[in-house]
From TrEMBL, chain A:
Keywords: ATP-binding, Nucleotide-binding, Transport. Belongs to the ABC transporter superfamily. GO terms for biological process: transmembrane transport. It comes from the Bacteria. One of its GO terms (cellular component) is plasma membrane. GO terms for molecular function: ATP binding; ATP hydrolysis activity. It comes from Salipiger marinus. Residues 10-262 form the ABC transporter domain. Pfam families: ABC_tran. It is a peripheral membrane protein. Transmembrane segments: none annotated. It is found in: Cell inner membrane. This is Oligopeptide transport system ATP-binding protein.
Automatic annotation (TrEMBL), chain B:
GO terms for cellular component: plasma membrane. SUPFAM superfamilies: P-loop containing nucleoside triphosphate hydrolases. This is Peptide/nickel transport system ATP-binding protein. GO terms for biological process: peptide transport; transmembrane transport. Residues 6-267 form the ABC transporter domain. GO terms for molecular function: ATP binding; ATP hydrolysis activity. It is found in: Cell inner membrane. Keywords: ATP-binding, Cell membrane, Membrane, Nucleotide-binding, Transport. The keyword Membrane applies. InterPro entries: AAA+_ATPase, ABC_Ni/Peptide_Import, ABC_transporter-like_ATP-bd, ABC_transporter-like_CS, Oligopep_ABC_C, P-loop_NTPase. It comes from Salipiger marinus. It is a peripheral membrane protein.
UniProtKB/TrEMBL annotation, chain C:
It comes from the Bacteria. It is found in: Cell membrane. Belongs to the binding-protein-dependent transport system permease family. It is a multi-pass membrane protein. InterPro entries: BP-dependent_transpt_permease, MetI-like, MetI-like_sf, OppC_N. Keywords: Cell membrane, Membrane, Peptide transport, Protein transport, Transmembrane, Transmembrane helix, Transport. One of its GO terms (biological process) is transmembrane transport. It comes from Salipiger marinus. Residues 90-279 form the ABC transmembrane type-1 domain. The chain crosses the membrane at residues 26-48, 94-120, 132-150, 219-237, 257-279. This is Peptide/nickel transport system permease protein. It holds the Pfam family BPD_transp_1. The keyword Lipid biosynthesis does not apply. GO terms for cellular component: plasma membrane.
Amino acid sequence: MSESTSDPILRIENVTKTYAGRSGLFGRAAPVQALKGVSLDVTRGQSFGLVGESGSGKTTLTRSILRLEEPTSGRILFEGQDMAKLSAKALRALRARVQIVFQDPYASLNPRMSVGQIVTEPMAIHHDLLRLSAAQQRERAAELLTLVGLGPQHLGRHPHEFSGGQRQRIGIARALASGPDLLLLDEPTSALDVSVQAQVLNLLIELQDRLGLTYFFISHDLAVVRYLCDRVALIHHGSLVEEGPTDRIFDAPQTDYARMLIGAAPELRVP
Amino acid sequence: MTVPLLDIRNLHLAMRSFEGEAHVLNGVELCVNRGEIWGLVGESGCGKSLTGLSISRLLPEPPARYISAEITLEGRDLRALSPREMQALRGKRIGMIFQDPTTNLNPTARIGTQLVDVALAAARHDPTILPPARSRRAGARALALDMMRQVGIPDPEARMMSYPHEFSGGMRQRVLIAMALIGRPDLLIADEPTTALDVSVQAQILTLLKAMVAEHDLGVILITHNLGVVAQTCSHVAVMYAGNVVERGPVRQVIERPAHPYTRALMAAIPTRDTPRGGLQGLEGTVPDLIQPPPGCRFAPRCTRATEACRAAVPPLTSQGPGHEVACLHPVTEDAPHV
Amino acid sequence: MTDAVSVPPRPDRLARALFRFRQSRLSVIGAVMVAVVLLLAVFGPMIAPYPQDIAGAVSTAERFQPPSLAHPLGTNELGQDVLSLTLGGTRVSVLAGFGVVLIGAAIGTLVGAVAGYVGGWTDEALMRLTDLTLTIPGLILAMAIAAALGPGFQNMVLAISLSWWPGYARLVRGEVLAAREEVYVTAARALGAGPGRILFRHVLPNCVSPIIVKMSLDMGFAILTVAGLGFIGIGVRPPTPEWGTLLSTSRAYMPDYWWTAMGPGLAMFIAVFGFNLLGDGLRDSLDPKGRR
C-alpha cells in the first residue's frame, strides 16, 4: 500500500454535478446538486473504497468516471489526461482501459446473448485496438472464463442457466476482456449470498494480485470495504466527509458521520 | 409449561415448477413464545420466506402443496381454519411486514387514509382496539395517529395527509410496521424488513422493532439473510439450509458456539474487523437439487465432517445445551474462532 | 473457486415458454384452431369437394340447395358449393392477414425503434406522425387508398398496412425506452459500443416477444378488416372466393337461404377466435408482464 499520490491512475478534481429540476405541471422543482466539489486520487495498483448511502452521489460519481454522464464542473483525469478533452476515438480507446462490474448480476447480462458472445463483445468493439480474430477472441474468452472460475464449456450457455455468483463471474470476465487497468466495482457482491460473496471477493483479490489491477470499489457495506480496500472515502450528500487509509478510518474516525456509519453496521457479535 | 404462541412441526412443502416438483421445506420445526424475536436466517432458496408465508397461509395451492404441516397459534390449528377465518386472523393476530416498503403502499392514497382503513378493518374483528371516540372513524383516526407516534414518525398529524412518495424508504417501512401492529397482533412476521434500507436507517428500524416487542409482548419472526442483524436484534435464531432448520437456540449460544458445520461456514464467510485480506472462506459446492434431494442430511455433499451415516437419513434436532438444538451427527463443539 | 465448475443444464427459454403455454387449455385450443386454419390455407383448394367451383364454375341447376350430404354447407345463388368456396377463401384471407400484420409490424418497429432510441426532436416528429395516422379511421384510409390505386389483393393489403403500423410504433417505442435503461445496455455503452450495436444487439432482440404477441393478437382483427373491405366491395374481386365477398353476396339472399352465410361466417369466427386465444396464450408465456 502506497501513500504517495505521485502517480494517481485516476484523479478527480473538484467535480460537481447539478441536475436541473424537473419541470412539472406546477413549475420547475429546485435543481439537485448530486456532487458538490469532490476531489480524490486513486493510486495505481490500489483498492480504493467509496462508501455512501443511497442518494449520497456515489452512483453519479461512478457514471461520471465512465463518462456516461458529464460533470457540471471539475475535471476527471485518467493517467493525467482530462477525459472531457479526449477525441471520440481516444475516448473509445480509454473505455477499453476503464471497465465496470455492476451490482445486479441478473440485470447486467443481456439475456438473449450467450456467455461467449457476452465475453467476446468487448473484443469485437475494440477490435481496432486488440486485433483479435474470431478464433482468437473465442480462445481468450475461454481463458477469461477459466480465470474467473468457470470454463470453456460454458461459452455456449445463456445467463439464465447460471446462479447469481456465477453470473457475477461472467460480468467480471466481460470487464476484463478488453484488458483494463482500472476496474470500477459497483457493489459487485451486494446482491449475492454471503458464502458466494466471499468467493467473489476472494476472486477479486486473486485477480488484483495476478493482473495488477486498480480497483475503485463502491459499496455501502463497511465490512466488505474494510476487507478489500487500502483506502476509503466516505461520501454523504454529494461531498466527501472523510478520506484516508482503511485502518485509520475504521479505528479512529474523525467525523460524526463516519462514527455513526461505523456504529450502525450490524456486527456479528451479540451485544 | 404453557402453550407456545406459535408452534410449527413437521412442515413439509412441495412446489410445482417447470422442472418438476421441488421438496422445498423438509420438516421445518419452530416454536415461538411471546416476547421472543426469532431470527430465521439462511441463504436464498433455503425456504425461510416460504416458512413465513406458510404460517399466514399466503402461498397459493397449487403450485404449493403441503405434504404435511402442523402449525398452531396458541393451540389453534391454523391449517384447519376456513379461508375466511384465516383472513380475520391475518388482520388481527398475525401482522406481516415485507421487504420492499414501496410496493406495499397504495401510491394514490394518503398515508392517513391507508392507516385508518387498516384500523377500521382490524376493528371489525376486535372493536376494543379503538379508543373511545365520537365515531368509529374518529376512533380509527386516533389509533392511527397513536401508532404513527409509536413508530417514531415525527409530526404525525401533518404526515397523515402525505402520500407514500413523499416519505423516505425508512419512513415508509415505519408506516408498514405501524400498519402491521395496528390490530395488536400476537405474532409479527417480518420478511427482510430492512434489506432495502441504508444501514443507518436499518439500525433505527431494528431498534424500533425491539421496542415494539418489549411494549406489546409480541412474538416476532424476523426473516433475514444477515447474521449480523440477527446477532444485534434477535433473542433466538433458527438457521435454515435447503428446507431444514439445521440449528436453533438462543442467539448467544448459536453465534458464540455454532454447532452445525453450515452455521460455521456461513459465519466464516462474513468479513469482520479481524479478517485478513484473502482470509474469508467461501462455501464450496452448490445448494442441492431440491427436486431430487440427497436422502440424508442435505448439507452432507458440501460438509467436511460428513460420514456415511450423514448420507443415510436426515439427522434429527438434538440438544446441544439449554434450548440449543442442532440437526447434525457430528456437531462442532469448540467456540467460534472469531469471538 | 469450485462453485462454478458444474452448471446443471437447464432447459432454455423456449421450453419454459412452451411449458407455461401448455398450462392453459384455452391457449392450446387456440393453437389447434390456428393450425387448422393454416393447414386449410395451404391445402384447402386441394381437399375441396368441388374444386371447379373455386375456379368460378357455375351450375344454375343446383342453385340454393340446402345443406345435404353432397353439399354439407349447401350451395349459393350460382349453384356453387359453399364449403368449397369457404375452403378456397381461406388462403386469400389468411395471406392478406399475414401480409397486413407483417408489413404493419415492420414499418411500426422501424418507426418506434428510431423514435425511442434517438429520442428528442426525432421522437417528437415520428410520434406526432403516428398520432396523426391513428386519427384517420383505418377502414376509411384503406378505402381511399383502394379507390386511388384500384381494387385488388396487393393494393388492399398495402392499404390496410398503411393504417396498421401506428400500434406497433407505439409498442416498440415503449419497449425500446424501457430496454434502453437496462443495466446490460449501460454495460455495452461503458464498453464503448456504438448506437447500431446497442440497438440491434441489445435493445431490439429484447423487444421481440411483445411484438410477436401483438402480431398474433392482431391477426384475427386483420382478417376481419380484410373481410370488411371485401364486404363493401373494394377487396378481392369475384370469382376469387374471399370470406368478406362471400358474406356480402349472401346478404341479399337472407334469411331464406341462410346457409350461404354460414360457411364464411363460421370460418371467420374460427380464424379470429383461434388467433386471439393463441395471442393471449403467447402473451402469458412470452411476455407475462404484458398481462393486465
